[in-house]
User: Fold these one by one.
Assistant:
Number 1:
Amino acid sequence: MTTYLTRILEFKAGEVRDLKQRSPERLYREKVAELPPVRDFYGALRRAPESPINLIAEVKKASPSRGILVEDFHPLDIARRYAELGASAFSVLTDREFFQGSNDYLQLVASSCDIPVLRKDFIIDESQIFEARLIGADAILLIVAALEPAQLGEYLSLAHELGLAVLVEVHDEHELEHALEQGSRMIGVNNRDLRDFTFSLDTSLRLRPKMPSGIIAVAESGLKRSSDVMMMQEASFDAVLIGEGLLGEELQGFTWKRI
Ligand SMILES: O=P(O)(O)OC[C@@H](O)[C@@H](O)c1c[nH]c2ccccc12
């Protein structure tokens, strides 16, 4: 069945072919060895007992479901505003075709701010993990629904070997089980179904009790109101990942944890 996700992944496969032609793995390994260490993404997101929920603020220009969200898009200004709001980490979209993101945006944000940065993209090949490290990311997203079962474990290992943290994204019980079996340390529940872009906050609430303690738990997508954030805090998520909702006034006025 053709879904939004399958369409995105097909396009991504073409991009990855080009990327692999441009840069063989040997070159990546040499370059990565010269890089400074990453910032501690896991450490920034783990919520201490009694402390408020952490914010991963997403720097997002557009989405396939909503089109352009920010016409006059200045990623660094947006990131600085989110840091002032109290964000613990950033997520920067690097997918060009569907989200109008860019590696340049990530590079700019990562090199100008102290807060750790997640590369938000559809990773389907090891070359993209090396690339993430080279452009300055501290963490990557791995979407369980976008990978073959054997790939998740392999990519987790490679990312950790390169010093990158991994946010493993799941959408149902089955994916969660697989994520846990493969040794994920940080798991994000996407409230949005990437196959048809429908969403429900209940997805996070339903899956949270099935995540063992010790896992860093993140609720992702569709959070727009203070009450949504409070609900995830009460459900004992460590963090929320918010893009579009931060463009609205309500969450800009929210008292996020100050750093
Ligand atoms: O803008 P929102 O609804 O707050 O969502 C942010 C983030 O969760 C969403 O952009 C996202 C979650 N998983 C993804 C995977 C790929 C691209 C984007 C995403």
Number 2:
Amino acid sequence: MIAWERVGEELDAFGCAVIPGLLALDDCRAAAALYERANLFRSRVVMERHGFGRGEYQYFSYPLPAPLEALRSNLYPPLAAIANRWQAALGLDARFPDSHAEYLARCHAAGQVKPTPLLLRYRAGDYNCLHQDLYGELVFPLQVAVLLSSPGEDFDGGEFVLTEQRPRMQSRAEVVPLKQGDAVVFAVNQRPVNGTRGVYRVAMRHGVSRLRSGTRHTLGIIFHDAG
Ligand SMILES: O=C(O)CCC(=O)C(=O)O
Ligand SMILES: [Fe+2]
């Protein structure tokens, strides 16, 4: 069982929350091994070629592997409830539908048809520059990354980091400690913050610090599709 109430509170307070042990260790190993199965993916990105960092990732093709499809659609409804709370706090009228199938139908109708779940692979010296996974007008405001490798065992360094850009203020950084199988839920872009003079928005970015040794795999679950 996922403690969604705590996850929601931490997202409200910090823009990120950990779900401990979202995947069992066997499932982590199985998911990381998919990286070698080129036929499962629609494209491969070598980060250095684009100035995104160092390391690589691949976007899955549709149909997604069944466990990934299930994870994406099962995580969506509780996250949509949080996202809708954020929409209200920001004074925005649009609401996210209850099911991921409905949300994807909206993405597809808007021309965002390409699947966005991805597997990432980092080796010694690799890193992922601070970024936002925006792929078109439709943006689901929360996303999930699952650490598939074991820190201190499979790799060292390579920490998940977030920054929060506050209006006319200095940025705040957050390092998220993860164990193998843990997931981090975080804001894709903007989130509401309660200030003394009402709600204001901050913009988040995420990335990964330099790997000191070993190999690190992650599974990224993004809920909007790409144009
Ligand atoms: O490797 C990571 O921990 C971050 C992956 C990432 O950028 C993502 O899932 O969008
Ligand atoms: Fe990302």
